[in-house]
Amino acid sequence: MNSASVGEGGVPNPLDYDVDLSHPQGGTDVAYGAMTFYRNKNPNGVPPTLQQDDDGAPWLRLAVARDAYLQATAGDPDRCDRCELRDTKLPLGTAVSYSFDIRAEKGFPIVAARCVCAQIKAPYYDADGGSPLFALRIDGGRFIATVEHLYETKDVTFVDGAEVSQYVQPYTGSGSCDAGVRALDHHVFGNTIRDFKELQVRGVLATDSRGLLPHLEDEFRWCTSLVKVTQENPLPDDIYKWWRFTVRVAPTSVKDEDGILQLLVSDPETNDERLIATAIGEFGHAGDLDPEANTGPAPGEGRQYFKIGPYRDKLRIWGGDPAAIHVRNISRRYWADGLSLRQGIATS
User: Fold this and answer.
1) In the chain, which residues have pLDDT < 50?
2) The pTM of the whole model exceeds 0.90
3) In the chain, what's the furthest Cα-to-Cα distance?
4) Structural domains in the chain, sorted by start
5) Going by DSSP bridges, is the β-strand pair 134-139/323-334 parallel, antiparallel, or unpaired?
6) For the chain, what percent of residues have pLDDT higher than 90?
7) Cα–Cα distance between 142 and 155 in angstroms, integer?
8) Burial class (CB in 10 A: 0-12, 13-18, 19+), 195
């Protein structure tokens, strides 16, 4: 076991788990050890099916398809299709590392639309319904990873009632994001102070070697310097091959302090691991001590958790064929190094 996952006296850390795909438990909701498929929270999710490679190694097929399940009342069924396993929630600020093998199924629809495959959720302006702190996506047949940082009223000034930010600026071409990263602004600039809420800005953490597709070039029309991203290597180009992803995250539970996130990828056949990117930013909403100013969970009440499986918007572009991914070797470990790295950010 990795030393980072061992507590005092050599006892395994209680945060650690390895998902047992071979022994599902339950009926309507299916538990795979620490992670569960909740039937009512997975509209149009095909029931997970256990498969085996030629060597007997188990993996799980997770798929969404049009009209596959219409009885779900949770999981935003009018807007989303989901087939996700999720773990239990942890206090915001917990330093953990998630690892998993993943590949897209042959025939995965190649369309100009996002499909989230794995994500770490955390609260932003609401209890836990904000967009994911981290997301690994397939879009147009390519991997892309994103991070989300908190964007607050203190980060802007208001001129004649219009919002002006010194940190989020329009992307105007090559070189214009040298001080930051490409971003999608979750709220429309021009909000007034009356309806301003602490919201999110999504930054590009990593792409494959080919960069952003044309429709994403148009979507990520901003640059943000509120989140710092150091990109070391591209994501894999082949979405149909097994790859092992590791996401390490140490967000903060302290208002206006930054956390850290690292994304690594390895080839399960060679175990040759590469650091893809590191991000530093305010990941998640720690809550404001002033209840009149707080727009999210109260301080100390924010939660983070992990989900894996396809999640997509209901769009006709997907057609009727299933969008399926295969997953295996899912685990979580306590990330002790994340605490020291986060502390170094806070004191620098």
Assistant:
1) 1-4, 8, 189
2) yes
3) 67
4) 17-347 (2.60.120.200)
5) unpaired
6) 71
7) 33
8) exposed
